[in-house]
Structures are given as C-alpha cells and as structure tokens.
Amino acid sequence: MAKEFTVAVAGATGAVGVEMVKTLEKRNFPVKNLKLLASARSAGKTMKFKGEDVVIEEMTENSFKGVDIALFSAGGDISKAYRKCVVDAGAVMIDNSSAFRMEDDVPLIVPEVNPEDIKWHKGVIANPNCTTAIMLVAVAPLHRAKGLKRVVASTYQAASGAGAKGMAELIEQTRQILNGEPIEPKAFAHRIAFSLIPHIDSFMPNGYTKEELKMLNESRKMLHLPELLLTCTSVRIPAMRAHSESLNLEFENEITPEEARAILEAAPGVTVVDDPEKKLYPMPVDATEKYDVLAGRIRQDISRNDKRGLDIFVSGDQLLKGAALNAVQIAELL
C-alpha cells in the first residue's frame, strides 16, 4: 500500500489555493485527508475535492496537528506568523510567498531545476516567484549544457499576477472603455485595458522593482551561480492569464539554435513551439492551464560576433508552473 498523506492548503479560497486543490486532484497526489484552511469569513463554506465536499476551516495555530504537508498561499505575513506552529507540528511547509525565499536555510525549489536542494530543508521549502520559475524551467537545461553567464530579461505579465482583483479590473476596464465610461484604476497603478504598465511591485533605490530583483536573486540561488549577471524589466500587460518572457542569454560556450532546440525538446517541463513559417511560437493564450513552459523564437543573437548568445521567448501559466503546480511537484518530490 502506497503511503498517503494529510495535506493542508492554507489560503484555499484564493486564486492559487483553488489551483492547488485542483492540481492535487488532477495529479492524483496520495491524499489521505485534505484540510482546507482560510480566514474566518470563508469558514463553513465548501470546496469540491474528488467529488466530495470539503468544509473550509478557519486557520488557527492548532490547524496543523497531524498534517504531513502544508501548502501555503496566504501571503507572506501569514506564512511568517504560522511558520513555527507548522514546523512544531511536524509538518513541512511549502510556501508560495516571498517570505522565506532568500533565507539561507530554506531551499528554493523548482523540481526540474534543482531537486537536489530539497535534502537540506528544515521544515520549510519556498516556491520561487512565478517569472523566475517559468524562466528557469527553460534556461536551466541550457545552463547545464553550456554554462550560463548573463541574462537580459523582459517579462510580459498577465493581469492574474495581481490575483482575482487584477483579472476583474482588466475585464471591467475593457467594458468601460468600449462603453465610453470613465475609468478609475484600483488593482493597478494605471489603466491596464488596451495599454501596458512597466511597473510591477515597489521601486527600489536603484530604480529596479522588487519583482525585477527577485529574478536576479532567486536565479542566483537556484542555479548556484552567485556571480550570475541578470537584468530585468517587468511589464504588466492586458492578458488574462499566463506570463511571457523575452530572454537574451549569454553562455560560456558556443550554442546554436539547433542545439538549444534539441536540449529543450529533451528537457522535462518544456514544450518547444518554434516554427515561425507556420506562425507557431509561445503565446500566453496557449500556455494557459498547461503544465509545461512553452519555448520558441529560438535564434542566434546577431548583436554578437560569436555564437555564445541566444534569444528565446517563453510563456507559462503563472498560476500553475509559477505557483500551484510547482508547490504540488515539490510535495511529490518530498
């Protein structure tokens, strides 16, 4: 008899929490008991899991007794507040927030990228930022083959990156514009419908946003490349779901587009979509609700006088590979 686990989902009613529950079911994770935890206002409501109604409980410090794995998507402050009681209860916290990602004793994991790091967890494992996860699924196999030196990234991030309120605002503003009504942005700093905003998260003294610096710091940690050079510009676009990224990559060794395609076709978690003549390339609408990261537009960087540079475009569902799916894959790895 295969071992089964008691799994808690903290923040079960949020966009990522809902996807976590769906992903546990779709991947047939060996769940013995499922505990759905949320705030007091959601307590008593139900969610479906494998055809059964599961009653949502209010999360308290006693919620984790008997729990093996706790999937957290309730925000960093809540993760910090509950860390001790989760670990003291003997559960492993897999946390989706940025609370613990850069702590030295917390592994930051994408199973296709650095599964070996899971060995040194002390009760907490962190999920990286969604854009980092999507990028590294495609970039890590190329790095292993050719040695990554530098990345110039531009991200095109969907409204759902700002949660349910971000998606609702995109729909509402689109309707308002088409009906000639006035717009009052709430979830975003500016109008998002029929526009874009080169600003995600708060600005830091060096002019980069926190979102952009996460790409640098998390990539260095997960690839074990403390000297990696990476610069990023993060842009919010009026797509509903799935993030895309334009990546200019520099390697220690020469690499051709043909080599890159062969490496990515053999890599777990990647689907190569790269046939420009047939107008096939990664797009967020095609990545939505897919587990794999789509990779395409793979070409030699013509701004260099050697063959150590590549351009590549990727799209991935940030609610899945960037969050819920990655958390469940970490649980599978455990």
Task: Give an overview of the whole structure.
It is a single chain. The chain has 334 residues and is α/β, with parallel strands linked by helices. The protein has 3 domains: 5-127 and 324-333, Rossmann fold; 132-158 and 196-318, Dihydrodipicolinate Reductase, domain 2 (2-Layer Sandwich); 161-193, no CATH class. Helix content is 30%, strand content 25%. The protein has helices spanning 15-26, 76-88, 130-146, 163-178, 210-223, 257-265, 284-287, 320-333, and strands at 5-10, 31-38, 46-49, 52-58, 69-72, 92-95, 124-126, 148-157, 229-236, 243-251, 270-272, 293-300, 309-316. The strands form 2 sheets. It has a 7-stranded mixed beta sheet with strand order 3-4-2-1-5-6-7, sandwiched between helices. Strands 9-8-10-13-12-11 form a 6-stranded mixed beta sheet. Helix 7 links the parallel strand 11 (270-272) and strand 12. Helix 1 (15-26) crosses helix 8, helix 3 packs parallel to helix 5 and helix 3 (130-146) packs across helix 8 (320-333).
Write the layout of secondary structure elements.
Blueprint: E1 5-10, H1 15-26, E2 31-38, E3 46-49, E4 52-58, E5 69-72, H2 76-88, E6 92-95, E7 124-126, H3 130-146, E8 148-157, H4 163-178, H5 210-223, E9 229-236, E10 243-251, H6 257-265, E11 270-272, H7 284-287, E12 293-300, E13 309-316, H8 320-333
Parallel strand pairs: 1-2, 1-5, 2-4, 5-6, 6-7, 8-9, 11-12
Antiparallel strand pairs: 3-4, 8-10, 10-13, 12-13
Helix pairs in contact: 1-8, 3-5, 3-8
